[in-house]
Amino acid sequence: MATNFWSSSHYKRWLVDRATLRQARSDDILYVDHPEHLGFLNIFFANLISKLGKKLQLRQRVIATATVFFRRFYVKNSYCETDPFIVIAACCYVAAKAEESPVHIKTVVSEARMLFVEEYGIKTFPSDNSKLAEMEFYLVDELECDLTVFHPYRTLMTLCGKEGGGSFPEAEAGEADADDFDGPRYWGTGEGKLELQEGALQMAWFIINDTYRSELCLLYPPHIIAIAAIYLTLVFHAPTRAAIQQAQAQAQPRASTSNSNSHPHGSSQSHSPTRRSSRSMKKPLPQHQHQPQDIVGFMAGLNVSMPLVATVAQEIIALYALWDRYSEEPNVGPAFVQKTTRKGRSAGKVQAQPPAQATAQEGQEGAPVTPMFLVQLLLAMREQRIEDMAHPASGRPVAVNKMLERTQAAG
Amino acid sequence: MDNILVTDPMRVYRAKRDAARKRVTDKYSILGFISSGTYGRVYKAQSKDSDGRIHAIKKFKPDKEGDVITYTGISQSAIREIALNREISHENIVALKEVILEDKSIYMVFEYAEHDFLQVIHHHSQTLRSSITQPVLKSLTYQLLNGLLYLHDAHIIHRDLKPANILITSSGVVKIGDLGLARLIHQPLQPLHAGDKVVVTIWYRAPELLLGAKHYNKAVDIWAVGCVMAELASLRPIFKGEEAKLDSKKNVPFQKDQLLKIIEILGTPSERDWAKIKDLPEYQNMRRLDPFANRLAQWCQSRIQASGADLLSHLFAYDPDKRLTAAEALQHKWFQEGQLPTRNAFESLPSHQIPPHRRITIDDAPSMMPMPAAGSQVQAQVSQVQATAQAHLSHSHSNHSGKAGSAASFASISAGGGTHTRKKARLG
Predict the structure, then answer these.
(1) Mapping DSSP to helix (H, G, I), strand (E, B) and coil, where does residue A206 land?
(2) Nearest CA in chain A to B4
(3) Per the CB < 8 Å rule, is B154 touching A2?
(4) CA A212, A217, A223 angle in degrees (round to 5)?
(5) Are B48 and B26 in contact (CB under 8 A)?
(6) Nearest Cβ partner of A81 from B12, B153, B218?
(7) In this protein, which residues make up the domain named Protein kinase (chain B) (predicted)?
(8) What does the pLDDT look like over A1-41, one tens digit per residue?
(9) Element (DSSP H or E) covering residue A242
(10) B234 and B137 in contact (C-beta within 8 Å)?
(11) Regarding beta strands B54-60 and B105-111, do their DSSP bridges make them parallel or antiparallel, or are they unpaired?
(12) Contact of A115 with A54, CB cutoff 8 Å
């Protein structure tokens, strides 16, 4: 099970399509002024889970699992009919157990209260352990007891040959597990390792962290998300991109004489020119055979749908565009800008982004969305919802109007 | 309207869910009570579907504050058992049909198995007064290893294999049960010993665990298979030691008696057998024990065929790295020669030798769930209920470790070692 994604509950029951997600938000969307606000809520909730997780000293994988639980819960429920804050706390509590690093319920309640009440002014969070335990009970039921979650981190570390720790600080150490499975993998040949620079690997890791701010974990299998994160890293990480471009320039003159037999890293599937041009990479890059590794060739050798990877990459970029208009605190932003390039936010961003995205951003207007705005929005949504449910006969058309207004505005 | 949002923001949600939820008694008729343990109770139940299938429903003990059942959080063991069972599927593992969460209690609905290894052992020692035949022994061992291979391939260590946890269906198919102590070992976030101080019931506990190893692996299950196989062959536990209890500071003591029981048969382990033994915390303690020579071959003589004895000796390799893996054990020549293992382990038996059906109690059964006819939705409380079953076991398993968290299986006798009271199940 741990090795076979295709027979997992994650694959069989918890990958959904866009229509399902739209249906899941069909009540909520009646109570927001703009559908984008739901996207901001996605970011906000993931940030909260992450913050609470860090207070509870949960590892990144546990935080990721908690986030997936949260998303799954809201495939079946509406924000406007629930209290997302108690759900967040329950997700962290269950995820810690599911990932074999349990935290005492008292600790979760007190840390969650501290975070929600003091930092966000959410006064309704209960102080009673049994309320959280009750929520856990309903949560496990909603999750249909499927508590094992696959994450892109594992694909990333395996592809990069870092399984079992290594020097990468955030890597989930495989301590005490001497007998690692090393057979064929479901996403590739199992041969060869991707040689990413440490900084690039870290960037890919952070991009994966960032994907949990969206609903990608419900839409796509984790290995596709991992490969999309690597793909974006190859573009965004300046030294890596420079190395690829350099290798490509060197290889250019020899391209006609090169063949694919002498690949040192076992990634030499058939790299015929036709096949390469059909890939979704921005431009066909000729392969090179010597140091450094032929990264493009490695990517091409993976047994995954490249159009799908490109789609996920696009969605990640769209997330960053949205996130850019969201403001929490100075130090919470898209991780790959903040933590890896160590440059000014805008400088890093502009440099990293394809031109199309950069110009699109310039066209944005209005103040950034803040947590306070979203907390107020949630409260308003809930109040409105209760009012609507309390007066069904009156048929107050408030909600419908908002949808109408949008339609009319859209022309 | 503001009131609800402030006082109980999830009330509307819960009402909606509670209304939609199908109750256990809507879906199943409870036929009777099978057994109880530290974890809760097991019932025999019939599906109200048209198939009318029989199931075993395991009800986790709800938490109580005084007499009021309250939510205190789902136990790590229940989370494990549920999470693992939802992902796995194999002929030799007890299948989980569904989980029902209702009224603060968790019900796990399993496929029903008529027998278990402990019951088969008892049937032979008490009723038939003869040993288990070699074809049956071989088939049971083979199927046990086959189920274990599946778990190990999925990176799951069972950590509580013992006769009571290994079930057999009426058609003679072995089903490994009770994953309450099992866990995934793939990329653990914490070392295994950090989670559970004591694993595996003492008689089935591998020497590396007895010697205090901080790191262990799948080999601990293989050792337990060896113990189970030997117990099937001799109808008594091969290493029946006394467990030293945790001290007041919850330190794990040196398990001198258990280790001695092992050494008396397998001989004193040498550094030649097991190079890393000298690095283990309890090594010096072990050296103070009297030395013994290996007399396993002699032990096996009247009990197991020659090649079966060879298999057993390799399951009992002291060095976990030299112990057979499940895959290797399945390739052993014992399984390739003479009568081959059969899918129905009882195939070779005349019908009168097949163990009797599992005994269930009805009249005086704990009625925590309304009995079949009762339409009442009221859930009687567990506290009102007493297990009335009694054991007639010659060697009581009641000193199995309770601290191992061993949630004994359907027919198992619950652990008596902990603080809980002893409850015994009547076995047919």
Answers:
(1) helix
(2) A386
(3) yes
(4) 110
(5) yes
(6) B12
(7) 28-335
(8) 455 888 899 999 999 999 999 999 999 999 999 999 999 99
(9) helix A238-254
(10) no
(11) antiparallel
(12) no
Q: What is the residue whose two structure tokens read 């110009």?
A: A359
A58: nearest CA in chain B?
Answer: B189
Q: How many CB atoms lie within 10 A of CB B369?
A: 25
Domain architecture of chain A: domains with CATH = 35-149+370-387 (1.10.472.10), 152-308 (no CATH)
Tokens 């069989």, located at residue:
A12
What secondary structure does DSSP assign to B46-76, as a single string? EESSTT--EEEEEEEPPPEETTEE------H
Percentage of chain B beyond pLDDT 90 is 59
For B92-134, write each residue's pLDDT tens digit.
999 999 999 988 899 999 999 999 999 999 999 999 999 999 9
Q: What angle do CA B3, B8, B11 make, to 5 degrees?
A: 110
Residue bearing tokens 């990069």 = A160
Cβ neighbours of residue A116 under 8 Å, at least 6 residues apart? A48, A85, A122, A125
Contact yes or no for B188 and A174 at CB 8 A: yes
How many Cβ atoms are within 10 Å of B133's Cβ, its own excluded?
Answer: 15
What tokens were used for B425?
A: 């199940």
User: Which SS3 state, helix, strand or coil, does residue A301 take?
Assistant: helix
The position carrying tokens 């032929």 is A294
The single-letter code of the amino acid at A139 is L
Residues making up chain B, counted from first to last: 428
Residue ranges and CATH numbers for the domains of chain B are 2-113+359-389 (3.30.200.20), 116-351 (1.10.510.10)
Interchain contact, A175 vs B188, CB within 8 Å: yes
Select from B70, B82, B189 the Cβ nearest to the Cβ of A100.
B189
Smallest CA-to-CA distance from A229 within A325, A313, A112, A342 is with: A313
The nearest alpha carbon in chain A to B325 belongs to: A179
